[in-house]
Amino acid sequence: MDWTEDFRKAWVVTSLTLRYLLGTRRVIATALLAAVPLILTLSLAAARVESFDILLFQILMIPLFLQVFLIFVTLVNATTLIRDEIDDNTLPFLLTRPISKPALIAYKYIGYLVAVLILLVPPIILAYAVTEAYRGLAFTVDLDVLGGFLTTTILGSAAYGALFLFISVLVRRPLAAGLLIGFVWESVAGQIPGEVPKLSVAHYLRTILKDVVAVGPLSGYPSDLGAGLAAGILIAFSIVMVILSGLVFQQMEFRQKA
Amino acid sequence: MSITLPTYSRLEIPLLARRQRVWAIIATGLRRELRRPAAIVVTVLGAAFTTISSIAILFVASIIPSGQAPDLTFFAGPASNFFVLFFVSLMASVIGAGLIADDMQSMAFTLYLSRPITQSDYLLAKAAILAPLVAMVTILPLLLTALVAAFLSFFSWTIALQAMGISIIVGGLLTLFYTAVTLFLSSLTRRKGIAAAGVFAVNFGLTIPATILAISIQNFSILYISPWDDYVAVASAAFGGPGTGIDWPGALAILLGVTVLAAVVTYVRMKAVEVVTG
Amino acid sequence: MNGVVEAAGVSKWYGEVLGLNAFTASFGKGITGLVGPNGAGKSTLFKLLIGQLHLDQGKITLLGEDPWNNVPLKRRLGYCPEQNQLYGWLTGQQFVETLLRLDGMPAAKARQEATAALKVVGLSGAAHRPTRGYSRGMRQRAKLAQALAHDPEILILDEPLSGADPAGRVHILRTISDFARDGGHVLMSTHVLYEIERVTNNIVLIHNGKAIAAGDIHAIRALIDEHPHAVRIETSKPRQLAQALARMEHVVSFEFPATDMLLVRTRKPDAFYRELPQIVSDTKLEVHGLESPDDSLDAVFRYLVG
């Protein structure tokens, strides 16, 4: 196996994906979505809201960022990886290259992950910085909060992205299915008693936040897992979803649109 | 020898009336949407969920002893059903986001405009496709709730009919708002995924922080930026229900203003758009 | 199986629609034209050859190998799809270069080869423009460039002349001929017979998913010529015109479908069209219209499929 050549191909597909996700006009919409935490904290700081502190930051970010914008940025980006190529009739150019279909999926996923982290991580860091600066605190005072949100952002991007990628190779209209799963299921699952919450990505993200952040709105979140295990489950889930996507994609046929 | 070219006479086909041309677009669009499993599932789920939950809310409010005889104010609860926001966002994303975006992507837009169809006809038709489907979640549940309440004798028919009338008005307001905003977002891009993300951003990006902040900082005027809270204020006032922290005239003005602005901007954008083939 | 492409009893269903119906053919070296009307199964065959579809029945090989999920085989083939979409945000140079790097070529070499390929197809001037701004003909050439750039053994070209202007067509056909002359194999599809005639004598006729004729183009052309060819002439004096045309030996029959119409059947349409103006001029008869309902590949296929 020629690793140099495989690495070269991985680099090409990854950078092509990055270029598409970050270098075309679509990035305006996705960057705006990802920047909501920053816009919000800047607005609160500008309005000189007295109660704006790290706790309010968390109270806002958990429902808004983790439950809404993280899901939508990952959904919009992950579902386009293969579907847009099929819809745009550009997939044959890649499929007639000496690169296996599972490898193509994996390299596109890596490109997606890098792109989404570029979109999501800086606004979270800046929003945190604005919050601390507003209270006149040093950047390092509440690093557990920043660490918690960064960890959940990275792991959430990986897990949701892998899930939505799998949906996009499985169904022709992944957006609708992704919205139902990402938005309906992820919100509702946590309210169902028993072990059902463990079937949602959001449960593990909340578990991580609960464990990592010393004082926060999720301190009392009912979870019997630790942050490490939750992180491991999310990583394993992501890997399994990407592998499944590759396997499904390998058997797919492509009857291009006229 | 002579070869003379044959003469041709153009057959003048009378142009159908404008409403028939617009109806042709509506019929095509509805037929297309109602064939999509995703659209059917979301519409049916949305209508069912919101109707059942609205009835449940009314039922619970009716049986809890409050010292108040069942009257019109009880209908403010179903009107503020959060599932409506949930499903209207879903429907706007799944059905509405692609109405114009898909036409731009597939170049069907050029086919429409090469016919004797104006941009306003086109937009009216698109609105007429989306609005009835959105109304399945914004108006139908309230109508059915009032109907069921009257049949089960929880409320008199007089109150139920009044509730139905008000439901049509407030539900219609919400329908118009979401139709206009969704079409505006759909007209901005050729990718319906981006438009769908925009719908959710408008809904939840404004509603969630506004609600959280209003409670946290005890300043309820921030709720004006949330379209959902504006609607709830208007609906609550219409049914004579309790105040929601913001004044209904201001909320109504914002909703109407945004609706009209979105419609006008969409129209201007459609006039200016150039669809490049290739 | 020794041909470049070997297909034996290949069938492919799209739900209830049969894309290929027990298709059997062998394509040899050089340029082979796959000719058939729209919906005949040409694109289906190509998609099977590039591994984009999996056959339901039969056996198909490309360069002696099964194309389905065959990664190494992809190095040996160059494919030019029918659809005109490219990566619009890339320039022509970037587009070809990126795909070359996916063939495993190092960046510097890929850049060099991309430049050379774009020069071959006549796209050097527009190489640094985003492909979203390309005309249809330019896109066609960009697709051909990416198919050629990595020096494949075989080119599979799906309607390569579609959308190209006359000058572009000449250029593309010359490029294809040069590739074949340098030892490459070409399989190209078209529904226009005369396009293929300019580059090769080998064609396979496909209709309703079946190969109905294969071989030298002149033999097939002769089949067209021998099949009585109908020509409909509008004239105010059809019988007089028929009398004048009767002296042509290749005219088989006359019919008078209307009082101002003459339907002539001839075995040699080329000769008929050549001689008709002189006859009309000599007899001073008026001709208002002239059309040939038979002058199409469809007519040939109708004849061939009986």
Task: Describe the 3D structure.
- Chain A is mostly helical and 258 residues long.
- Helix content of chain A is 75%, strand content 0%.
- Chain A has one domain.
- Chain A has helices at 3-23, 26-34, 36-46, 54-78, 80-87, 91-95, 101-134, 143-170, 174-189, 201-212, 227-250.
- The radius of gyration of chain A is 19 Å and the shape is globular.
- With 278 residues, chain B is mainly alpha-helical.
- Chain B has one domain (18-272).
- In chain B, α6 packs across α8 (157-187).
- Chain C is α/β, with parallel strands linked by helices and 306 residues long.
- In chain C, the strands form 3 sheets. Chain C has a 6-stranded mixed β-sheet with strand order 5-6-7-3-8-9, sandwiched between helices. In chain C, strands 11-12-10-13 form a 4-stranded antiparallel β-sheet.
- The chains are: A mainly alpha (258), B mainly alpha (278), C alpha/beta (306).
- Chains in contact: A-B, A-C, B-C.
- Chains A and C meet through α1 and α6 of A and α2, β5 and α3 of C.
